[in-house]
Amino acid sequence: MRLDQFVSQAAAIPRAEAQKVIRRGLVQVDGRKITKTATHIDPESEVMLDDECITLPGNIYIMLHKPAGVVSATEDPSHRTVLDLIDHPHRQALHVVGRLDKDTTGLLLITNDGEWSHRLMSPKHHVPKTYLATLAEPLTEAAVEQLRAGVQLHGEKGLTKPAVVEILSEQQVRITISEGKYHQVKRMLAAVGNRVEALHRERVGEWALDPELLPGEWQELQRGK
Asked: What pLDDT does 223 receive?
């Protein structure tokens, strides 16, 4: 692990600030002063910042109700990010578990636990993800059957895995997929001749969006496993 990354996460300060204190000689690792920010260290090392021992935070698991208009990134020079919505002392250590498009709303999980996020998002684990889609046109029975059987996406080889499709109203459906292809739900519905007007994620695996969370609100989960 890079020293500047460790100091940023352990001291809950921006990476740029961590680099400054390292260069100023305020950081010691196992009793040795280190001034090179990119030095790789063992996360179990004893790290002192200005003569005070600092350690990495424990695992953090956060559920966010993502609003439209923010990007699923830790930082972005042009747009507000989902982490800008998280007022947490160890925000610098967090990353987004998967992504939602800028205009897509709903459940977004955020953590500092890389193994947990990998298990949720790795294609080989086939974790189901459920979305509420508002469509431009009513979904025909033929289109529903195509989605349930798997469809051919533009530029892809083979069919998608079968989706679970529930018709809620003439132009609103609940769809569950177990893959994570780029813009998959929108592309699947385009493949059957329709268009998604609005998309909202309700669930990822065992985690369902808390109905009491308003857009932009978040809560820390008691466990992530």
From this structure: 61
